[in-house]
Write a structure and sequence with these properties.
By secondary structure, the protein is of the alpha+beta class. Among the domains are: about 30 residues; about 140 residues, Butyryl-CoA Dehydrogenase, subunit A, domain 3 (Up-down Bundle), CATH 1.20.140. It is built from eight helices and 24 strands. The strands form six sheets. A six-stranded antiparallel barrel has the order 2-13-17-15-14-18. It has a four-stranded antiparallel β-sheet with strand order 3-12-10-5, with no helix packed on it. A four-stranded antiparallel β-sheet has the order 9-6-4-11, with no helix packed on it. α2 runs parallel beside α6 and α3 packs antiparallel against α4. The longest helix is centred in the middle third of the chain and has 83 residues.
Length: about 575
Amino acid sequence: MKRSKKLLIGGIIAAVVVIGGIYKVTRPKTTYETANISKGDVVHQVSVTGSIAPFKKIALQPEVSGKIVKVSVIEGQQVKAGDVLVALNASDVGAKIASQRAVIASAQARLDELLAGSTSQELALAETALATATSKRDASIAAKSDAEKALANAQINNANAIAKADTQISGKLATFLLDYDNASTAASDAMSRLTSGIFTTNDFLTFGTINQSAEIAATSTRVDARTKLNDLSNIVSSVKISANSDAALQAYAPAIADLGGIKKHLEASRDVLSYASGVSATTLATYQQNVSTALSNINAAMQTLSVDKQSLDLQTKINAADVTASQITLQSAIAALSSATFAVDTNEKALSQGRADLNLKKGGNRPEVIASQRAQVASAVAALTGLEIDYIKRVIVAPIDGVITEVPIEVGETVQPGTVAVTMNGKGKFEIVTNVSEVDIAGVAVGQPVRITLDAFAPEQVWTGKVAFINPSEKVVEGVIFYETKIVFDNEDERLRSGMTANLAIETARRTDVLRLPLRALKQQQNRAYVQKLVGGKLMEIDVKVGVEDNEYAEVLLGLADGDDVVLGSTTK
């Protein structure tokens, strides 16, 4: 029984061994295709189709707004492609570029040191540099805090200056309005109570005279004075309703003119009393006293209004000077805070780089540390590229050889995108008109090189050109937004004809001698980019950061080193 049981177990084991051997021989095998990461060029191109057209004038426009600081050409001047025609103020961008170049130099220096290996002396220097960067960062934070306080004080002072100006103007205006009212009252009193006994309701004298000219002057000026009184009343009512300094100042001249007309009538009335007849001495004396009082009141009103105007004028000028001074201080405080904020950002970056430098020196020459530092250099270079692009946008250059036909702008003028700054004619006879979609237009810029083939010729027949013009206004074709773009040939020949179809490859970015990986190896999932590597026969996913891409390769910014192998694909047999 025991022997039979042993034989059974032995048979089972033998069967398992045989089945396992068969599976080992027949199971599927996976073969991986890999590629070696190396350096090379990555060129991104935008491919579009256009057609040849007769050359038209090129209207060059700034891409950003700004103040013109230099105009280098005049009408009729011949220019070469790349010549600077107009420069906008770029001092702020220039300072940032200089700062970013210093950041790149520092990052590159650290990479060079890392590649060379760290000594104890270099480690000590890195620690000192980190302490210095920390001190500078702390000092810049303190300076920013001071700038914020200064700005707060400047804002308060500016608000106080405006409030004070409003209060002072309100006081002067209140006095002015009151004196306008008093002047109107004085004029009305002069024409009614103080002279009513001298004239009838029909504006004739109530007594006889021995001087007809004086009598005519008195009665005729009274008619005009009544009109002046009515005008003055309307002026004063309007000023009181408006109740603002501009209205009060504008009303001054016509009000004085009306008071002057009334004064002229009172003087004529005073003169005619000298020739009165048939009136008692007592009544005549009363008339003369009343006219004298009326004249005195009118003169006083005119003098008072003159003083009010001068006072309001002076206060307005003083207030304008005070408010302007406070606003200048406020703008200076804003600029100082902006500069301090930029200094903090710069010093924070320097501190971060100092820490990274020390960590790199402490960490030794591990490949991943070197790759990380390379990525920092690449990131700093990319930031510089962005700043340089911004700087380039502040300079208008000739996209092609040609002749300037119009320069409608001047130094000191502030221009906006879309403003025509220079118009020029090219030397060629043809241009290529194409439409670039909104997806690609952000990377296209005037002056970029273009590879051109024409359907009318063999594919190997290649022309070259440049982007000469990008229309800032969009156009919609079948619901898709495009921007009209014009290309000019570097060299034309007699075979070119208007209407020919052109195939264009616009070079929007180029990276030379950079680490690159085949696009076949790059995998993307949501916001993650990664590649696969074989480690000990097993697949591992490695996160990467990429930059410029073309049809075959992607620039590697982070995650891989020169010489690494990545998986392109696999086959199973």
